[in-house]
Write a structure and sequence with these properties.
The strands form three sheets. Strands 7, 10, 11, 12, 13, 14, 15, 16 and 17 form a nine-stranded mixed β-sheet that branches. Strands 1-2-3-5-4 form a five-stranded mixed β-barrel. A two-stranded antiparallel ribbon has the order 8-9. The protein has three domains: 1-51, Transcription Termination Factor Rho, Rna-binding Domain, Chain A, Domain 1 (Orthogonal Bundle), CATH 1.10.720; 52-135, OB fold (Dihydrolipoamide Acetyltransferase, E2P); 144-420, P-loop containing nucleotide triphosphate hydrolases (Rossmann fold, 3-Layer(aba) Sandwich). It is built from 15 helices and 17 strands. Helix content is 39%, strand content 21%. The protein has 423 residues and is of the alpha/beta class. The protein is globular and about 75 Å long. The chain starts with a helix and ends with a helix. The longest helix has 20 residues, at 240-259.
Length: 423
Amino acid sequence: MTQEELKNKKITELYEIAESLGIPDYREKRKPGLIMAILEAEARQRPTEGSDGGVQVDGVLEILEEGFGFLRSPEYSYLPSSDDIYVSPSQIKRFGLRTGDTITGIARPPKNSERYFALLKIETINGTPLSEERPRIPFDALTPLYPQERIHLEIPEKNDLSMRVVDLFTPIGKGQRGLIVSPPRAGKTVLLQKIANSITTNHAEIKLIILLIDERPEEVTDMERSVQAEVISSTFDEVPERHVQVADMVLEKAKRLVENKHDVVILLDSITRLARAHNLVVPHSGRTLSGGLDSNALQKPKKFFGSARNIEEGGSLTIIATALIETGSRMDEVIFEEFKGTGNMELILDRRLADRRIFPAIDLQRSGTRKEELLLTEFELNRIWVLRKLLAELNPVEMMEFVLDKMRLTRHNKEFLESMSES
């Protein structure tokens, strides 16, 4: 039985398999550890010819300072565990492997004095068979461009007004660096879920990763059940070092996929909490900004956010991150001010709309996308400019109510824009 087949089974089914194989203390193991124990037991009982009992494995490579590495599991949010797969320095050097490479292959169970499974054979690197692997241009050497290919969020069958509004007023393209600016309880989590579901529905070619930093455990579970995508998390009860390590692994994985000309989207909630974690982890420089923020704390979060780009050679990395405001924390305001203007798309949520239960609670006047003419058709662009001029005299509440009332009368955005020209 393969690792993928075992992952699709319920924990109760895995318990039955473990009991039949005579695995001790199997009820004390988490699901990933139980899967590895089953694979090890099966490999020892039925070793395949010439493979020393090899089993099919996959994971994301993290290379340590000592030169060797481990395949980390997304089940553990790419953090170290006893179920990791050892990768030797000779394999890393021979195949030019780097941290973040997604690898599938054959591994053998640990021998008497060993603690980890060891990788015997590599089959694919970042989805490409080893026989087809070509030299890669490093991510930082690739040419960044403005987004030119649109990510369509509108799903006509669902008629979701939130996604229709975002699609018109703040269009998102492949390679977008977007900031969702939100006060507490303004609907940012629901908006992220809807964006994620729209991407998985309309763009099967996009690799979607949702990164939750310093969030509530129940919110992580809700996201995992609401979205058919990879959800990587580090909850608020974890140490800041873990937040940083998880974010670093996700970014490295995304970069390796982009180097192989894949389109990747990272939805980050939130960049404010990631910056807070870095503030606690970085060595203090002796220079402290307003709110207790160290002057060096934002270097790596900015590097993370700045990695979003459309690539001329092929592929793209899109990052849509949330930034918190009006939390009562001076540090959060400073973090937002530092990131304001660094993105090429800003979507501002307004608490006044949320208090009136008007969703999406978007301040249309302050929200927008740079170089939107590269993403919208000429017809759409002309109509949106006319609509923005018409709405300019209204306050945010009146503006959103007007747009939603008109959208409810139409089935999709094309019909909505055509109805404008008729009127």
